[in-house]
Amino acid sequence: MSTKQEVTEQMVFPMGEKNDAFSKYFVGQSYLNMISTEQVVIGNVTFEPGCRNNWHIHHADQNGGQMLLCTAGSGYYQEWGKEPRKLQPGDVVHIPAGVKHWHGAAPDSWFTHLAIEVPAENGSTKWCEAVPDEEYGKLK
């Protein structure tokens, strides 16, 4: 379990503002600080306890996908049809294009990761359904 103060003290990049532009794709409150929009898009995403994004897919004709570099707190990542993976600072997640997945904070912890968009030919993100509370509630 990590508190907001513990997570912000661990951060190399500042937390950023409430992520209102993407709030319809999240359950709970997230915060976004765009680190880079040149060459490679990198966002510092912070999740309040219990916050997670909806299932989504990064599509691309060639290359693409996403990388997560976990920097503070405790969270989860799950691919469709697989068991959730607990995330801690220092963990790296490689998400190939076309893989349906979600990621977010543990129920009792703040969580921060750098989300890196892997350059793609004709890349796009398809947002899907929310992770149901009953499924998320099973996380340990």
Describe the structure.
The strands form five sheets. This protein has a six-stranded antiparallel β-sheet with strand order 1-3-4-13-8-11. The protein has a three-stranded antiparallel β-sheet with strand order 10-9-12, with no helix packed on it. A hairpin with a 5-residue loop joins strand 9 (75-79) and strand 10 (85-87). The model has no long low-confidence stretch (mean pLDDT 96). The chain is mainly β and 140 residues long. The N and C termini lie close together (11 Å). It has two helices and 15 strands.
Q: Spatial order of the strands in the main sheet?
A: 1-3-4-13-8-11
Helix content: under 10%
CATH superfamily: Jelly Rolls
Shape: globular
What is the CATH top level name? Answer: Mainly Beta
Low-confidence spans: pLDDT under 50, at least 5 residues? none
Structurally, how many domains make up the residues? 1
How many strand elements?
A: 15
Question: What fraction strand?
Answer: over 45%
Could you tell me the mean pLDDT?
96
CATH architecture: Sandwich
What separation lies between the terminal Cα atoms?
11 Å
The major sheet is characterized as: 6 strands, antiparallel
CATH topology: Jelly Rolls
Please, how many helices? 2
Give me the strand/helix succession: HEEEEEEEEEEEEEEEH
SS-based class: mainly beta
Q: C-alpha Rg, in Å?
A: 14 Å
Organism: [Clostridium] hylemonae DSM 15053
Protein name: Cupin domain protein
Domain Cupin type-2: 45-105
